[in-house]
Amino acid sequence: MEANERIIVALDFDDRESTFSLVDKLGDLAVRYKIGYRLLTSVGFDALDEIVGMGKWVFCDVKLHDIPATVAGSVKNLAARRVGSISLHASGGSAMLKAAVQAIHDLAHRPQLWGVTVLTSLDDYAVQNELLVNASAQDFAVHLARIARFCGCDGVIASGNEIERIKESCGEDFAVVVPGVRPSWAEQHDQKRIITPKEAIRRGADFIVVGRAITEADDPVSAFLKIADEMF
Predict the structure, then answer these.
(1) What is the dihedral of CA 219, 14, 64, 139, to 10 degrees?
(2) In the prediction, which pLDDT does 231 show?
(3) Which residues neighbour 139 within 8 Å (Cβ) at sequence distance 6 or greater?
(4) Is 198 a catalytic residue?
(5) Rounded Cα–Cα distance for residues 79 and 60 (Å)
(6) Distance between CA atoms of 200 and 132, rounded to whole angstroms?
(7) The pLDDT value given to residue 10
(8) Which residue is catalytic, options 63, 76, 198, 226?
């Protein structure tokens, strides 16, 4: 897989003009995009459908977390939009995860299901003192990855700190998607557990999710190419 194919550009915009301006600028360079709540609640699903229609592979980052029947129905509806992958919280439990996997098992177009482990905005203090989980953020993330693997998910979203342990526990064919990726020249913003593109790939990440380092750059094309060059 080429470097540019392993970068998922996060389209965290509030308007259609900014979204499609960036997609147009990046052109054939970027083949994968992340679309989440921010764009969906401002522009709507029409933007997602249009980007899929342009031949782009879309990671629908909706982080589903609900009772099994609701998540199963939602996953099936999103699959009909021909997205490439869908996120759902691994902490929703095995019944929810299995229901999602089963809902799309026999579909002609089956998107990948990626379990969200521990958000990269959370650290050990938040996990232990706010969520009351008696484990480090890293240990909790690996535990959730194992559950997602057992339930039939295709991979997980996890910080760069957990890549090697997840691969060791869940297998090399189990995708690890890393958000909170910041090139050495970019600002950290609100992420606490971050990693550089090169380090993420070195540790075994299959995909990296990059947002503001590209979307807020004066020259998004140059920023994208610089990140791709840094990866190997």
Answers:
(1) 50
(2) 86
(3) none
(4) no
(5) 10
(6) 28
(7) 97
(8) 63
Q: Is the pLDDT of residue 124 over 60?
A: yes
Query: The tokens of 74 are what?
Result: 């939602």
Q: What is the DSSP string of the chain?
A: --GGGGEEEE---SSHHHHHHHHHHHTTS--EEEEEHHHHHHT-HHHHHHHHHTT-EEEEEEEE-S-HHHHHHHHHHHHTTT-SEEEEEGGG-HHHHHHHHHHTTT-SS--EEEEE-S-TT--HHIIIIIS--SS-HHHHHHHHHHHHHHHT-SEEE--GGGHHHHHHHH-TTSEEEE-SB--TTS--TT-SS-B-HHHHHHHT-SEEEE-HHHHTSSSHHHHHHHHHHHT-
What are 174-227's pLDDT values in tens digits? 999 999 888 876 665 545 557 899 999 999 999 999 999 999 999 999 999 999
For the record, the structure tokens of 158 come out as 């996890």
Q: Which residues, at least 6 apart from 71, have a Cβ–Cβ distance to it below 8 Å?
A: 64, 65, 88, 92, 96, 99, 100
Q: What's the one-letter identity of residue 53?
A: G
How does strand 112-116 pair with strand 32-36?
Answer: unpaired
Q: Tokens representing 159?
A: 């910080």
- Residue type at 74? S
Tokens of 24: 């147009």
* Pairing between β-strand 32-36 and β-strand 7-10 as defined by DSSP bridges: parallel
pTM listed for this prediction: 0.94
> Can you read off the two tokens belonging to residue 68?
């099994």
